[in-house]
Amino acid sequence: MPDTLSRLGLRRMTARDADQHHRVASPLELLFDLVFVVAVSQASQNLHHLISEDHTGQGVLAYLMVFFAVWWVWMNFTWFASAFDTDDWLYRVLTIAQMGGVLVLAAGVHAAMVDFDFVVVTWGYVIMRLAMVAQWLRAAASDPASRRTALRFAVGIAIVQVLWVARLYLLDGALEFWSFFVLVALELLVPVWGESAGRTTWNPHHIAERFGLFTLLLLGESLLASANALFDALGEGEHVGELIGLGVSGLVITAGIWWVYFAREQHGRLRGMTAGFRFGYLHYVIFAAVGAVSAGVEVEIDEITGHAHVSEVIAGLSLTLPVAIVVLSSWIILLRTKIAPWASALVVLGAVLIALAGLLPEGEYAATAVLLAAVVIVIEVDAVRRARSVSPV
């Protein structure tokens, strides 16, 4: 078998060492992430337009539904790659096939969010998931020690994909809508069932780095989308002072989110299966909120320039709520056990005040920037105090 694989230019797909040192993201993984940002960008742009056109409830719900597909496929590939990446031509082809599915999904985001027509999004999603079935089957064939786990993943994913397609053509109306959440629950259960047969050998350092890199890409997409909207608005030559203030605040907010997320090392908390599930699943909230920040900035631009059809409060909350959610969820997932109780209390208070800043009649974006900067200061003061307490006298 090894000779046959070698002649085909393939490597045996066996479980990698979970404690491998200096494990970093591969160029293929970075390319993979870039394609996913296209889908996130489409989702955030449509969220912006729906909120500005006074369809806030529809926009938020549809965004969260579409974002699940993006996040779930990205995370499943990331965990698989951490344990089984061979980087041979077949592995690359199957990964590129998933990228094609992402582009199909991205093409259907507008119809999904505006008309709740999930046909194209579903087919793009299924393409990506079936590519993962092929990867898991290859792992099952190559690695006897991981076979039971790999087969569980392959079978579970395949069955749920059949149900996704059946949902499109056999259900309609309320049944089609509510079945989405039933299938989401089944998707979430597949890894729990699979890993119960034996934990895959994902690398804590690699996983922490991959999640951090994806957060950076989401922040970059947010900056780019906000900057493009700001440039277009400034080109009209009106409301220049307010728009510049929003631009400066947006930069501070982006830097603040980055600072809060990367304030402490995270790989140490990824030693057990339960910790891994908690870390991965709860990141949906962080990723979705970070992706929505750019939509909030663009709604604020529309409100300043008179192009929004929503109240000032809705426009303000469209920015402050995602930022508050990022801060609060980062505290829950990343910081709660790593900072002092007094610092935790102030971070949570800061998140609450950031959310409430959306109710201000004006200047909510500046208030958000100031409050987020205060949260960063609290985290850094805590770091200094901790460093002093452990330093030798």
Automatic annotation (TrEMBL):
Please provide the record's keywords in A-Z order: Membrane, Transmembrane, Transmembrane helix
Cited Pfam families: LtrA
The cross-references to InterPro entries, in alphabetical order and at most eight, read:
Low_temperature_requirement_A
Q: Which residues cross the membrane?
A: 21-40, 60-77, 89-112, 118-137, 149-171, 177-193, 213-231, 243-263, 275-293, 313-335, 342-360, 366-384
DNA-binding listed as a keyword: no
For this entry, the protein name equals Low temperature requirement protein A
